Amino acid sequence: QVGLVESGGGLVQAGGSLRLSCVASIRIESTVGWFRQAPGKEREFVASISRTGETTHYGDSRKGRLTISRDNAKNTVYLQMNNLKPEDTAVYYCAADPVSGHYDVGYKYWGQGTQVTVSS
Predict the structure, then answer these.
(1) Which segments in the chain show pLDDT lower than 50?
(2) Is 83 left (phi over 0), alpha (psi -120 to 50) or beta?
């Protein structure tokens, strides 16, 4: 069992930046992903990073504004978000162990989420 705790969300003005953190209770020997869910919308894939950090993937609309990274010594995965837009407002979740074998679906462990609100 892996416990995941997200932090770093908050209220920011459009154009601002936030860095989200996802801390795991144990060493994560798997790909880790970030997802988000806005009110009234389905959860969507944001970014993922492989176990070693060598391979990353981003959702199409967010590539260029986001950077995912990980520090395995700290059991932590980060999501740096720049030039935030009001449409980025959502609850952001991290997830680990994609048992599906794909980087954007089928994760086994999920955190409780952190709220990101971007004002215009």
Answers:
(1) none
(2) left
